[in-house]
Amino acid sequence: MAVGTVLITGGTGYIGSFTSLALLQNGYEVVIVDSLYNSSEVALDRIELICGKRPTFHKADLTNEAELDKIFAAHPTIDSVIHFAALKAVGESSEIPLEYYRVNVGGTVSLLSSMKKNDVSNIVFSSSATVYGDATRFENMIPIPEHCPIGPTNPYGQTKAMVERIIEDFITAQRQNLKKAGKPFEQWNGANLRYFNPCGAHPSGLMGEDPQGVPYNLLPLLGKVATGDRPKLKVFGDDYSSRDGTAIRDYIHVVDLARGHLVALNYLREHKPGVKAWNLGSGRGSTVFEIIKAFSKVVGKDLPYDVEPRRQGDVLDLTANPTRANKELNWKTELTMEKACEDLWRWVSNNPKGYRQEPPAELLDAVKAKTS
């Protein structure tokens, strides 16, 4: 008997697919909704290979509320949503802001409206540390705690901050309206998970990040340089006031991050807290140059890079203070940035075309031996 049925928006994407896997491995039924705009349906095959269970899949656009209504109607046991579906590139968001607001904010409004109609009352939202903006503008806010004032510096961060507020307002209103009417209200809950820099891949080498276009994040770009798909990495800014002049980020292994969504969902279902925000990070900051060095070490050769001017909207330091999640969710990162580099290299070196190729036979055999 399943623990519950969860709808995962953006569930074939990088973090969505790993979270789908974690939920299936922990007794949940999973229904995925994804437009496949920046992901591949092959992720479903890899999830099934690893855990022996396959999520139900619907190809749909989140901005189409009528489609969502049909999906909820087809799966009346859904009681919770984990919401990933969004456009997610900081740089691109400054070039096409309207599209980011349309998809990220508009899609969420459609989703919440459909949840309300179908009485689906828990939502875990994939937010981002970008909601904090430049936390160095305040004293004693690095590493960043959840009470750090929100102040995004780019349209992508603005959409995440807006969606957090929309979820907070929506859940609060649902609880107040039901309470006034003398009806049960505690079932309406939301978690805003502000996470830092996801990285790595599945240790089997069968699942990882597979962006459809040019990746925007540091480690996937390094992977492309290591496999020869790109000539060199661009480092944006070496004049920050850090230990080596490059920006500092908190890298979190995607397997740890997926587990964070699982424990946050369990917390909502068990404790019914209303709306809460949690940072999901390691609390350990690494500079861009330190990441290049760590990944080069795993690959076994120095990876070339050029230094370019800083990008608009980038900030010096995004390191998490994860104390609240450590205490309340009993969650902390278990896998290091170095382990993430190893797992990422296993993924990209064995699957240079990502999900657009068959995985090597020896990786498949190793997984089948484990699951048989």
Automatic annotation (TrEMBL):
It comes from the Eukaryota. Residues 6-281 form the NAD-dependent epimerase/dehydratase domain. One of its GO terms (cellular component) is cytosol. Pathway: Carbohydrate metabolism; hexose metabolism; Carbohydrate metabolism; galactose metabolism. Its EC number is 5.1.3.2. InterPro entries: Epimerase_deHydtase, NAD(P)-bd_dom_sf, UDP_G4E. GO terms for biological process: galactose metabolic process. CDD domains: UDP_G4E_1_SDR_e. GO terms for molecular function: UDP-glucose 4-epimerase activity. The keyword Isomerase applies. It holds the Pfam family Epimerase. Keywords: Carbohydrate metabolism, Galactose metabolism, Isomerase, NAD. Its cofactor is NAD(+). Mutarotase converts alpha-aldose to the beta-anomer. It is active on D-glucose, L-arabinose, D-xylose, D-galactose, maltose and lactose. In the N-terminal section; belongs to the NAD(P)-dependent epimerase/dehydratase family. In the C-terminal section; belongs to the aldose epimerase family. Homodimer. This is UDP-glucose 4-epimerase.
